[in-house]
Records
---
Amino acid sequence: MNERKARGVNYIESLGKWGATFCYQQKKELIGKYDTFEDALVARLNREKEVYSKIDNIYKRQRLLLHMTQKEVAKKAGICEMTYVNFERGKSKIMEENLKKIAEVLGLDK
């Protein structure tokens, strides 16, 4: 039955439902169980957007509190400026190793 594939969406044979899950920081969260693949996928994508937008806001808020520009943060973290700009705007995800570097620069690693 689960011929359709999407990260965090799977068919639960015993329930006859589609499950939506989200993993973040090595924790798996069950978002819910849905009648259709499409409903489960929408729920999964909405949760992903919600989590990442909160993360982006934390980094932006801290950067502003430190009176730093995006360019300064990127340079100190050793990453491309546009990578950081797009991350902060929520337009792209960022690799975990770069996220750790940015956290260090902004003092969020403690």
---
Amino acid sequence: MKFDPEIHHRRSIRLNGYDYARAGVYFVTICAQNRECVFGNIIDGEIVLNEAGRMVQTVWMALPGRSPDVETDAFVTMPNHFHGIIWITTVGAPLVGAQTNERPISLKMQKRKLMVIS
């Protein structure tokens, strides 16, 4: 079914009063323009990515290399949209080139270590 804004109404799931500019773990969804299936197709119940879909995945997985304070987690590319979980450990993180060689342990790794210790 093609997207129809007259019948497809979505309410915001943002938390009232939450500062989304701060560090944290975020679930993101990115939709293709006009929700066109530009990233691939579903064939026999499986996503088959085309070149654009593979590019989306490549860019997503390269994000931590662009900023030392960003980590990516689970993600899925669908024919007309993308879902991913991103960890932003420091607000105002510099891009590569402005970073130092020292990389502090990420919030994600700290939490994983706590889970192993507990």
---
Amino acid sequence: MSGEKNFKVPKNMPNDAVDVFLLLMDCSAKIRIMRDLLSGTKSFKQLSASTQCMGWQLKGYLKDLTEYGLIRTTIYPGAPAGVEYTPTQLGEQMKPAINNMAEWGHSYKALAKSKY
């Protein structure tokens, strides 16, 4: 994995692998951010619209995901400066997990719809 050698490792790393995932993705907004970025590079404005996060919240989530080595930030000079976010190779490895969550969500919705 290139570019993720110096990422932040959480204190008190859980023994259980699912708990590691949940620790890094401690809120559903981070999962939405990763879902959106796995379809391609996005700007702050695009992520703000798709995740419906307040600017200050989104900024914090993006900082966390960057520190954990899951996304890369590219800043383009200008007035105002342009910023884009892209998943790293490590972040790309979340695609199967997020796809599985989507499949489960579709199954749940179909089951719920059949009950009513």
